[in-house]
Amino acid sequence: MNELHAHYRLLLGLDDQWQVQNVDLQMDANRVVIQLRHSGGKPCCPECQDECSRADTAPTRRWRHLDTMQFETIIEAAIPRSQCTQCGVKTIAVPWAGKHSRFTLMFEAFAIKVLQSASSVLAATKLLKISWNTAHEIMQRGVERGLQRRDTDPIETIGIDEKSFGKGQDYVSLMVDLEGSRVLEVVKDRSEESCDKLFDSLTDEQKSGIRAVAVDFWQAFRNSIVKQVPKAKIVHDHFHISQHLVEAVDLVRRRENKLLRREGINALTGTRQFWLFNEETLDDAKQKQMEDIRRVAIKTARAWGIKEMFRDFWTYRSAAWAEKFFDRWYAWAIRSKLDPIKKVARMLKKHLAGLLAYFEYSITNAKSEAFNGRVQAIKSAARGFRNFENYRIRILFYCGKLQLEPDFSH
Question: Which of 143, 183, 227, 265 has its CA 20 to 30 A from that of 400?
């Protein structure tokens, strides 16, 4: 063995079963091809790990390795196949690459870091000089490894939420470990069955340890939670309730705006975003503008005031005092003569137990919503997803906190 071959054998971390047969430097192609050969020792079955006889040799394969001095580096080898009495004929495992992979372990580990750090998958593919499909295969293998390695430690609080997928009423459902700030699983649709599938990603011990679930008012999710983790408290939080109230205020605004415009008054036109502000965030100019509008848009101002008053609900330290406040707020909302506000008030009354559970378990879906930006960026960078499984892999790759890198111990 010459020094060059010994050098590459050391760099590749080859065991005694493999030798460097040739190093082909292709200057015109900016490529170096490292040809390996099996030393002829007894092969091991990749399934049961038993030593067995050699059946034959598979056709020569190639693997992309880390570049050498800006030269694309390729490993080339014909792999023996074992004749196992129990498992049959199997292609043996190689120390430099995973099963079915066309890349070395070192290249995959490097590619994963680039994919995680790059501004988009497209940017990563240009840096790595690989195709989009190849990048997805690397991410998919990484996610599969990560899910197999994921610990089964207890999880006490989770959040279940939905995200849009594709166009129209297409959704995916996500389960988030609220304490660990990680996405646990993603499934298609937002039905009771899909929520059941989310729980299937947990062990029985993990499900029995869940104390509380942050979720919106979607009945399908609630049904699944009651069935899967009957001892867990259902907790409704600030975000979804605020969202319902904001939508109710906007509906009142639109209805009143139509009436005012018939009278030639355009005070509410173009003010949709204005009513999203909280009172303490208004500067002097906006407060003056608010006062002017409220003199004209009486119904919208009343709806906004009811929405603002409900924010005090979350400031109480005990469920008992919060419930007393809710009763007062509810009476005002029902007397408001504003149908959108009354509808939300009745919905909150129906789910009051879930609101009050917040004072026992101060969890919210804020962390679930925090993934919205990342998930939306993933979706936008891919210009939408036609394939749900690709969407799932991408979310888990970037938001699952999984151990994605290949195992170099074998």
Answer: 227
